[in-house]
Design brief:
This is ECF transporter S component. The chain is mainly α. It has six helices and no strands. The protein has one domain: Arp2/3 complex 21 kDa subunit ARPC3, CATH 1.10.1760. The chain is globular and about 50 Å long.
C-alpha cells in the first residue's frame, strides 16, 4: 500500500498557506482564518511540532505582510513586531484543540463547539489586552466591560470567519483523506 502521508502533508500545508494568504484580501474587520488555522493545525498535522510551528509561521508571515504592506502608514520603517495578546489567544486555541480535536473521531458538531469556544476565549483574551493597554478604557470593572462591549461587532465577525474557514479547511482535509480521524494513519512522532 503506498504511503499517503507526503501528498496529504503537502495538501495540509497548502491549505494553511492559502488560509494565511487570504488575510491579505479585502474583508470585514476580524473576518479571517486566524482561529481556524490554529484549530486546523492542531488537528491536521501528525507531528506536534508542525502543529505548532506551521500555523504560527503562517500567522506571523501574514502579519508581517499586513503590517508592512496594508498598514505601512502606521509604522515608521519595517515593522517586525506582533501583538502578544493575539499570539497568546492563538496558542491557547492550539492547546485546546490538541485535547478536543486531535486524534479523535471527526465530528462536525465537535468542531463547531470547539470553534465557538475558542473564538470566545480569543475574544476575552485579546479584549482584555486592549483594556489593559489602551488609555481609552479606565482601569476598572466598568472599563473592562466597556472594552468587551466595544469588541462585540469584532466577535461576531471573528466567529463567522472562524466557522467559514474551519469548514473550508477541515472539509478540504476530509475530502483529501477521508478517515475516522482527520490525520490519516494517525501516529504521534
Amino acid at each position: 500500500m503506498p504511503n499517503s502521508r507526503p501528498p496529504y502533508l503537502i495538501a495540509v500545508l497548502l491549505l494553511v498557506v492559502l488560509a494565511a494568504a487570504s488575510r491579505l484580501l479585502p474583508h470585514w474587520p476580524n473576518f479571517g482564518p486566524v482561529g481556524a488555522m490554529a484549530l486546523f493545525g492542531a488537528a491536521a498535522f501528525a507531528r506536534k511540532w508542525m502543529a505548532w510551528v506551521v500555523p504560527f509561521a503562517a500567522l506571523y508571515l501574514s502579519d508581517l505582510a499586513l503590517n508592512n504592506l496594508v498598514y505601512a502608514e502606521y509604522y515608521s520603517g519595517f515593522y517586525w513586531g506582533f501583538n502578544g495578546w493575539v499570539y497568546l489567544g492563538f496558542a491557547l486555541t492550539i492547546a485546546l484543540s490538541f485535547g478536543l480535536l486531535r486524534g479523535r473521531t471527526f465530528s462536525w458538531l465537535r468542531l463547531g463547539g470547539v470553534t465557538v469556544g475558542t473564538t470566545l476565549l480569543f475574544f476575552f483574551i485579546t479584549n482584555f489586552g486592549v483594556w489593559l493597554a489602551s488609555p481609552l478604557y479606565p482601569q476598572s470593572g466598568a472599563g473592562l466591560l466597556a472594552a468587551y462591549a466595544a469588541g462585540l461587532p469584532f466577535l461576531l465577525n471573528s466567529l463567522a470567519g472562524n466557522v467559514l474557514f474551519a469548514g473550508l479547511l477541515f472539509g478540504g482535509a476530509r475530502y483529501l483523506a477521508p478517515s475516522p480521524t482527520l490525520v490519516p494513519e494517525y501516529q504521534e512522532r
